[in-house]
Amino acid sequence: MVDDWLTDRVISGLSWKAIHKLMYSPDIFPMGQGGFRLEAKYIKYDHVRNLIRTRMGVLAKRNPNPFISINLWHQNLQMQGWNTYLHASHDSPEFVFAFQSPWQKQQLLNHGWGMLMLDSTHNSVDNRSLSKGRKFSLYTFVIRDPIVGKGLPVCWAFTASAAAEPVQAIIKWLRESTGIVPCAIMSDCALAIKKGVTDAYSDLGQHAPKVYWCLFHVLKAFKNRAMFFLRKRSEEAMKEFRQIVYGNNPENQLHLFYAKWSSVSTTFVDYVETQWHTNIVHWAVFYRNTPHQGIHTNNYTEAWHRILKEQFVDTQERRRIDEVVQVLTDEVHTSYLMTQSQVSEGIIAQRVNQFQSHAKAKADGYTPEIMELLGITIYKFQVHYCVSSFTNPTTKFYLVRYVEPKGSELGWTTACSCEYFMLYGSGCKHMYYLSNEYNLLVVENPMEYTIKPTTYPGLAMDPSNVTEWTTDRSSMRQEILVPTVDVPLHLNRSGGPFKKQRTTSSDNTFPTVVVTSETQDDTNEPLLTMDELSQIISNRLHTVESMRSPGYTSNRQLLNMSNEEVTRHLTNLSASLVTAVKGLNNIHKHVKTRRLVASRCSPELMWWFMERAVEISSRVLEKCPKASKAQVAYFPGVAVVQCLPRDQVEQLMERLQQAGCKALALAYKHLTHKDHKLDFIMNSTVEEMECLRAECWGFLGTMENMVQGEKDRKQQR
């Protein structure tokens, strides 16, 4: 009876952990009274594991010979409509078995034209069926699922060799069966994958997909060899090579790199020339001119490998290849299918990566009231929204393509005609604003955008929208300087009191002040004589010299200081800076104090607080190259508060305060981190450190004056 119950639990898909919890249910122990014996005490892990492996073997092992079993799997999957490829189903280096479901094929065709990621993993399959020490490799083609916001495997392939030929065969089959020709293919630094991709698309010439290398693997490989050749100076070479990777002129930077390091190690320079210079188009960001959506690493495939080995396949057991095929087709495929369905219906929130979060943060700073105040309009058409430019609403507009909701699924915004989306293929602030306002999913597809603005009657696109593009670093509207208009002078000839003249203002004329003849006569006299002006200038210079802050170190003092004294001085300045930043964080630590500050601040002062805090944080992060970049919060111009309702003003001030507090907390975190603290001291000069310290202490004094009376101020030395 217990065996039947246990078998039913295993067939239902319960694992050992779930069955173990059922065995220790508190309802079982009262049953043991009255002469009954608890059979649950005799259930052990080995028994459950044996049942699980037996059930899996019955479903997966279609033949004792794994290669014959794979052949049967190939036939069975084809009958179910799967796209499969089997070559040399026997113990051979040419063995290849690739497969993808109809749903995966459709996802590849819908979302895989921009970037396709490829990587392999080893030791996930039992290799005893192969001879001569060969090992199975599991290649996975991954795309970024724009619906979910995570990586999505769209094809799996097993090979018995890590050479370029199996990779070429798989890509050729995938191209012929689906017609997919992506803009770029991302992989690690494996030359076999590069050669396989190049050979598979060799007939396309310049239209072949670009091959991008994962920057994480590039920098990791370079660092290992730099440590071997340069020893203690490897960190210096690593820093310079990183600048070349992200530089705007990598060729010239490499030549300067060679000129510097050739005198240190010629073998190291030869290594860089042969390994990296010849492949510069694969790793230099300057050459990545396709819509890459901010993807510069293979992190989606690495995350997939981690999920596979932690949730679905136990690498210590080393299952047969047909058992892993069964896990991929039944468990993994169903899991990804269910996740996408949940996100499509709004049950689970859509994820955004770090690159998308910057555009989303800009969109979150706008509300319908602010949009109306700025004059930003949105018009809905059959397949697109017409959105005014957020920075130039009167001169530019963009078209955002969308898909209507279907049944229980949410609608999509898929593309935008703005320069940001055209360049990166990633969601822009226009798409994220529409997503927030109309409950849409941001599902980018840079290859889908086919709207031609000039084809719509009554609409015209400014050519500067496409040819001249600058990064939108601020959403504040700039005031336009109004040119002065000459108004004829009206003289009072009647001798009576002067009457105010009526003025009419049009689009190009503005009312001006009427000046009488007596006022004009006064303007001809100089306000100051030359002697008085010279005296003021000399007094001002004397005042400036007398007001110099005594806490700064002069250049003469720095020249007389040794390197150890300079380092000690920088350390002391850093400690003083940390004390000031800590005091700023302590003021905003409690909710009561934050509310007090908000009640005593005007919107302009709160804006000033946010800008000062963000500036301090950015100046600290500039000196910490190893620290991750902080997410910047974007807000509309402070001038909009003049016409906003009171509740909207309070919400804006609260968000400004939160952004400032977050920036100060981040600055304190990096200043006290054991690694970032050393980088900050080593990369800062005495002048920069003293200026930043003075600003922080002045900032702290201002904030303490705001909360004066809440608690006694203490002198900090």
TrEMBL record:
Which GO terms label this protein's molecular function in UniProt? zinc ion binding
Q: Which UniProt keywords apply?
A: Metal-binding, Zinc, Zinc-finger
Query: InterPro entries recorded for this chain?
Result: Znf_SWIM (IPR007527)
Q: Where is the signal peptide?
A: none
The reply on keyword Cell inner membrane is no
- Positions of the SWIM-type domain: 398-439
Which top-rank group of organisms is this from? Eukaryota
Carries keyword Zinc-finger?
yes
What this protein is called in its record is SWIM-type domain-containing protein
- Species of origin: Puccinia graminis f. sp. tritici
